[in-house]
């Protein structure tokens, strides 16, 4: 029986129909007549990895025709996906030609069941060649592992352990600081960078006056293993009085090796109150009380002097007469206050007594001499 060259070539081609996932194809491999059908998975992996119990993760797997011939894939087997997996959508259409270089997508979600469960759902898709008769199978294996906690996560608190940031009341021109700490949990190391810290208000704008004054992350970022602690500091320097509220957000990148792993995000509420410093009231300078010199007080007018008394009759051998009259001009109050008038009166009285004494002595001597 004769075998033609064309039949021989066709037999060879039919025997070499393959479906190659991207992971099996060498990078930069040259597609030729021996690989007419090839399917490369260029999107997310169907392996969802480790997910916290009850959490849902959605991934889109992309299938690219990187072969020589056009092909089509019937999406019907995808409907066999069941909990914890679910088919959300696909652009695959039964019988529709997918030319070399074109891409079709499959979007699947995974909801982690009870902690510790491992889920595995292989789905085989039929790939039909559009250039010549023949088909092959391409298998996608959907996997997921449920954990009690996130595989990669962390906790953010103040250095004192508070679950919120409160700067308290800060005067304009002053600065308040709050130290923060990040404790890595889970089973994967996590990487942090300064650019992964933000403090935004309800409008999505940075809270005025709040900055990251220092951190252990560095501009290029730093990786911390589970159980290790990273630190950073927030400062608040207000420029206007009022109350500021916002949300502190810190994100960390899981270093699990999974390119589809998303950043874990932690948030804390933030509050700060700015007030205007009170202006001190100056102590008033006391006004000196003027000293008033009272006017001189005029004393009452002294009454006039008494009229002189009649002279004492002389003795038997002498006579004497005396008369006296006197008028006393009124003394001023100043003289009355100084006592000058009293002193003058005392002196005259003493003189009068002295004179009487002398007169009596003379009378006695005269009487003795006559006797």
TrEMBL record:
Compositional bias of kind Gly residues: 305-331
Membrane-traversing stretches: 345-363
Top-level taxonomic group: Bacteria
InterPro entries for this protein: Ig-like_fold
The keyword Iron-sulfur belongs to this UniProt entry's keyword annotation: no
Keywords from the UniProt entry: Membrane, Signal, Transmembrane, Transmembrane helix
Signal peptide start-end: 1-24
Biased composition (Pro residues): 279-298
Keyword Membrane assigned: yes
Disordered, as annotated region: 276-336
Name of the protein: Uncharacterized protein
